[in-house]
Amino acid sequence: MRALRTLGAALTLCAAAWLTAAAPAAADGKDGTDGTDGKSGTEAPTEAGTGFRTATEIKPGQQATAAASTGDYLYWVFPAAAGQIPEVEAELKLPDASSRHGSATWQLDVYDGLRRHQPCASGTPARRAAQQDRTVTVSCTLRQVRSWSERWANDPLQGAYYVRLTVVDLPAQDLGLPIDAEVEASVRDAGGSHADGGDMTPLNPVLRAGTAPGTDSEPPDDDTASDSADDKGGEVPHAVAEPEDGWGSGWWSDRWVWTVIGAALAALAGVGGYTLTRGPRSPGRPPIRPGSDI
């Protein structure tokens, strides 16, 4: 009976520890947004940039839209923290088939803060739309964002991620036809089984200070822009804002669950081993002490 009571107490303590550790994770809503319904509370952008420097910032969970012309390069940028897996999906509404002259191939590319092209782990980053198709959807799921990497590696690192959407193959007569694009970037946690150690500065480029895009004035380089911002005591503008939960993956990991389960199994093994090795003892007879006369 004593062994059963000990076993019950051990299981109760393990269950309480697991529930205490899991409660904050459920409240955090670690989806890269406000933790409510997967959407940020702000208004979604209705335009896209035409280059890396003018990329439109979107938050994970937002569905950005843009009206453009066939042949334009459309750019967006969003943040991704360590331990997350970024996913991007874009849908294009094409002109009427009667105004087009053939099929076209649309392509979605994702770049990190160093403008390194990141390969897609899954999804369909390029798709060919026939002349009669009214819509085409492209998507890309990156590998898990890491908190550090070797210099020679091309691992995705925490920071800004650029999305580029354009057409790569189409009849020349179709250039300039109007299109509507819808882009949504989302992030999800990879889980503790994929966690890694290390720390580094996020790849979040500094925006160049100067006049608005399209003017003749040439903006200064990044170093000059950073120095001038620091001298004025203001914050240095970056490509994307830091996520609410920071660039790290946070203290919670599902490894806590496996740690608690391992502790419970170890406690059960200890109780069971003690019960088996102690052996039966005669009731009413005191145990034999070492050195005593029998």
TrEMBL record:
Region of interest (Disordered), ranges: 25-51, 189-247, 274-294
Keywords, comma-separated and alphabetical: Signal
Species, as recorded: Streptomyces rhizosphaericus
Signal peptide (residue range): 1-27
Bias (Pro residues) ranges: 283-294
Name of the protein described by the UniProt record: Secreted protein
Organism domain of life: Bacteria
Compositionally biased region (Basic and acidic residues): 28-37
